[in-house]
């Protein structure tokens, strides 16, 4: 039986790294890729921040206005201001294609998980030492050809490989495993136990807070719960979590990526309660989403989901699952309109808060 060896490659601050490479004047500076900060009045969020910008507290998904404030605060302390650059998805996609081509040259089984990360099955390498050599070659080729760096984690499954790739960034190579099965299990559990429970994929802020209330902060703490206890607390996810905290993961590499949803969202230039404006933007978003759905190759969808974010950043998501699959723009837009109506009156917006962001997506694609 062939021993399973999986690698996870994650590009380091991908968008920002490309911009730093292509704009020598910004070399060595904190770089933020995202919306225009407009002197602290900008809308939208940070898409990517390089590691120098992260030292200022700037992270992905942070409101761009806060990122600007953090940059100004650093400047007052004598540090360089961050360079704020717009997102160029076309350029990033081209670089991603080159990187994925390099990866495919080293493994016949590759899951392209996103624009800047991929899983590789290196089981045919036959040993962790040989898998390490392969990954060193991949990192070297990417650095030579694209002049940016990647971090790679190697382990017995996707779960461990992904967590490992994040443990020594940037430009890291982390191996958690052994050719001996018993030793491999021991290494995996020893690696996981001291980690924060947030390192386990699927544990978000709410679940973390729930466990923290029980004095559960590390993976080792979480292992005190039995399978039955976790199932009673979290349902089916509790059973999966029981396996994950022990480093067990049998999920296969998905060579053909199938999207679970197609959506779009828009952050308004100004917070607003103008119903005509909100309806007009909702219509445009629906048209854009439906066009992408039509081009995707899917035949139908069953669920329409609306996201509303108010000026105070309170965010709500509402969904409607249809009785039968559909593929018509009229039904899609009608359902989206029904979902937004309660947010325009006291049913879902009793304090009459203005809208900051609006998003719509279709799910349960067939």
From TrEMBL:
Residues 6-204 form the UmuC domain. PROSITE patterns: UMUC. Its main location: cytoplasm. It is found in: Cytoplasm. InterPro entries: DNA/RNA_pol_sf (IPR043502), DNA_pol_Y-fam_lit_finger_sf (IPR036775), DNA_pol_Y-fam_little_finger (IPR017961), DNA_polymerase-Y (IPR050116), DNApol_IV (IPR022880), IMS_HHH_1 (IPR053848), Rev_trsase/Diguanyl_cyclase (IPR043128), UmuC (IPR001126). The keyword Metal-binding applies. GO terms for biological process: DNA repair; DNA-templated DNA replication; error-prone translesion synthesis. It is an enzyme of class 2 (transferase). Keywords: Cytoplasm, DNA damage, DNA repair, DNA replication, DNA-binding, DNA-directed DNA polymerase, Magnesium, Metal-binding, Mutator protein, Nucleotidyltransferase, Transferase. GO terms for cellular component: cytoplasm. GO terms for molecular function: damaged DNA binding; DNA-directed DNA polymerase activity; magnesium ion binding. CDD domains: PolY_Pol_IV_kappa. It comes from the Bacteria. The record marks 15 as: Substrate discrimination. Its EC number is 2.7.7.7. The active site is at residue 117. Mg(2+) binds at residues 10, 116. Monomer. PANTHER family: DNA POLYMERASE KAPPA, DNA REPAIR POLYMERASE UMUC / TRANSFERASE FAMILY MEMBER. Belongs to the DNA polymerase type-Y family. HAMAP family: DNApol_IV. This is DNA polymerase IV. It comes from Candidatus Azambacteria bacterium RIFCSPLOWO2_01_FULL_46_26. The gene is dinB.
């Amino acid at each position: 039986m062939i021993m399973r060896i999986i690698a996870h490659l994650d590009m380091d601050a991908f968008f920002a790294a490309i911009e730093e490479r292509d704009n020598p004047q910004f070399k060595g500076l904190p770089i933020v890729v995202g919306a225009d900060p407009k002197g602290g009045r900008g809308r939208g969020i940070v898409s990517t921040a390089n590691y120098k910008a992260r030292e200022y507290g700037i992270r992905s998904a942070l409101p761009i206005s806060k990122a600007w404030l953090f940059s100004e605060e650093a400047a007052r302390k004598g540090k360089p201001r961050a360079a704020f650059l717009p997102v160029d998805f076309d350029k990033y996609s081209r670089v991603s294609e080159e990187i994925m081509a390099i990866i495919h040259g080293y493994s016949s089984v590759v899951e392209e998980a996103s624009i800047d990360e991929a899983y590789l099955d290196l089981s045919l390498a036959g040993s962790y030492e040989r898998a390490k050599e392969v990954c060193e070659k991949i990192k070297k080729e990417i650095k030579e050809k694209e002049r940016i760096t990647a971090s790679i984690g190697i382990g017995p499954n996707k779960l461990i490989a992904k967590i490992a790739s994040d443990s020594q960034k940037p430009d890291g190579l982390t191996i958690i495993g052994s050719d001996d099965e018993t030793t491999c299990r021991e290494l995996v559990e020893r690696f996981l136990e001291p980690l924060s429970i947030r390192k386990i994929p699927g544990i978000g802020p709410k679940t973390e807070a729930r466990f923290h209330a029980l004095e559960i902060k590390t993976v080792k703490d979480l292992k005190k719960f039995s399978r039955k206890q976790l199932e009673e607390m979290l349902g089916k996810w509790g059973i999966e979590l029981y396996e994950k905290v022990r480093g067990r993961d049998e999920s296969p590499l998905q060579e053909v990526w199938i999207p679970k949803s197609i959506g779009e969202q828009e952050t308004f230039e100004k917070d607003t309660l103008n119903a005509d404006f909100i309806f007009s933007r909702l219509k445009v978003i629906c048209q854009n989403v439906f066009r992408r759905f039509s081009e995707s190759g899917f035949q139908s969808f069953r669920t329409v989901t609306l996201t509303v974010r108010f000026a105070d950043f309170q965010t709500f998501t509402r969904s409607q699952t249809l009785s039968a699959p559909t593929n018509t723009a009229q039904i899609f837009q009608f359902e989206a309109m029904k979902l937004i109506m309660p947010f325009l009156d006291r049913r879902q917006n009793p304090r009459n808060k203005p809208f900051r962001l609006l998003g719509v997506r279709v799910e349960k694609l067939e």
